Amino acid sequence: MAYDHENIFAKILRNEAPAARVFEDELSLAFMDVMPQVQGHTLVIPKAPAENIHEIDPEILGHTIQTTQTVAAAVKSAFDAPGIMIAQLNGASAGQTVFHCHVHLIPRRKGDIENPRGGVRGIIPENKDY
Ligand code: AMP
Predict the structure, then answer these.
(1) Separation between Cα atoms, residue 77 and residue 112, nearest integer Å
(2) For the whole model, what pTM was predicted?
(3) pLDDT (tens digit, 9 = 90+) per residue, 87-127?
(4) How far is Cα 25 from Cα 28, in angstroms, rounded to an integer?
(5) Residue 82 alpha carbon to ligand 1 centre in Å
(6) Catalytic residue check, 102
(7) 40, 42, 108, 126: least buried by Cβ within 10 Å?
(8) From the candidates 41, 63, 100, 102, which is the catalytic residue?
């Protein structure tokens, strides 16, 4: 599938859609997830267009991971998170819904989910009564 320049993250990068930006450099951007699975759920994206991990330039991927490490430290501190899950989904079958490569940073606390190794969709939002 060809990269869709109208996807929501491409629009955020072009300032055509709003985002709560928390970090930005020449090659990457981090912002808060608009539908957070838990408080502090943050996304890191490369600025270069790439749909998923199969298409991204390895050097850009490396930089995106460096940014992820930087932002993870900030999220850990800002949200007093004892643990952080890093998740990255590729393809609709894996649960990807926005087709611009991105990394999830999801604060984790003991007991907040049944299976700490579960995927990004396995998280029970704080504000839901399951
Ligand atoms: P994925 O399922 O891995 O593709 O994750 C996409 C993520 O993007 C989801 O967690 C959404 O809540 C999040 N998302 C979708 N639209 C926006 C937006 N406009 N601003 C911030 N996060 C968004």
Answers:
(1) 18
(2) 0.91
(3) 999 999 999 999 999 999 999 998 776 666 665 655 544 44
(4) 5
(5) 23
(6) yes
(7) 126
(8) 102
